[in-house]
Structures
1.
Amino acid sequence: MSPAIRTRTPREIRSARRPSRHRCWGHLVAATLWPMHDANLGTLLRTCDAVGACLAAPPYHWVDAALARGNTLRKPACVHRVGDPLAWLAGERAAGTQVLGVELADEAVRLADLPAARRRTVMVLGHEATGIPPEALDLLDGVVEIPMIGNGSSLNVAVAGSLVLYKLAGLL
């Protein structure tokens, strides 16, 4: 007979996590610089909290409402506002940050082969319909691809970003 499975209580789960309130860790940043759907932002923000990452988003008028609606934790989250995505990515790269895009490309690393981030890493997610703009592709250090078997050509931005964040955080 196998031993009984015991689930942890919410108190046990909380005590095993970070001891202080969230502040910008600065190690992982999910950059949704060209979002199309507001629902994706809230979902990705929840994943950012789960893996200890920050979210970079444009200062569009609808972003605050989308983040508030999607942040089911109801606690402050680390969100960086990015007004000029190309200048921000160039600055991050110049500062030594690894900049990875999630995109379909010939030279892409498969998600299963992606190592955990060992230094500050920005994960760039493109527009849901058009992907990462060509002018931003030149600012990437590498590209990650999520293999698919089905008929679709890509996953929802929040789902794709969540998978890559977990892998970069070393949690998968």
2.
Amino acid sequence: MSDSEQYVILEGLPTPQVYHDLRKLAGMTPPPLEAVPTSLANSFVGIVAYERKHMLNDTTPGPEQTAVGMGRLVGDGALFLILVDIAVHPEHQRRGIGKRVVQRLVDYVDEHAPWAYVSLVADVPAQKLYPQYGFKDVKPSIGMFRMKRGRRIQDELAEGAEQEA
């Protein structure tokens, strides 16, 4: 069975705990768990990946099954969207799951919000992924962020950006 046949990619959202854990396992900053339910509820769309061998059928994960990959779009649903949370469990990386999740999200935008400006922030390892789906560098503009939560985290992110420059 090929890698693409081993996984099912569905529209939906992970549970708050799975969302938190997938971000952490994928090397992304884990969010405060108490904020996750509200965040997920405000998604424009979510995409999750599951192992096919644990599915009850083509659209229903098994009762104990957890997502092995995910991605979301957030925003106003028409003109401005942000692609976020592309994360794949380390044991399932390098099997095309991230690419399939991004493709489903791009297809969703094309169908449901064709005039949307879709933006994202990509860590260095993922920067080669997104141009395949039509994303372009924003130069001469620059990306910026503000995060009240965790001054230490904000300082670490800023320091990492300076080292890459």
